[in-house]
Amino acid sequence: MRKSYRVKSEKDFSLVFHQGDSKANRQFVVYSIEKEQKHFRVGLSVGKKIGNAVTRNRVKRLIRQALTELKPYIKSNVDFIIIARKPTKDMTQAQVKASLIHVMRLQGLFHTDPSRPVERKERAESES
Questions:
Q1: How does it assemble (predicted)?
Q2: Which residue of 24, 54, 62, 101 lies most exposed, with the fewest beta carbons within 10 A?
């Protein structure tokens, strides 16, 4: 994911934490707030309770990969923060993606259902 898709500043993080709402499952907590912007932005938080730096970076890579795959389904006008909980350190890529879909669906972050395939814009335009 490009840097423009990230929530980086402390000010933005605290705005999402304090004014946004949250949903959680056993693996993740997701805070979100609606904003006026061209695309969604995401912040990741993987604490030291998860493990050493190698483990934390692995979890972040798995989350980023899942978000890249889910990108076509995510609403464009939201900032959200994903906080990883302890069970994520032993999860596979498929488990991370399934868990993220679950908690993001609870939070209402999808404009279409990720279980259905999305048609590409080029395909839709050529049929018109």
A1: Consists of a catalytic RNA component (M1 or rnpB) and a protein subunit.
A2: 54
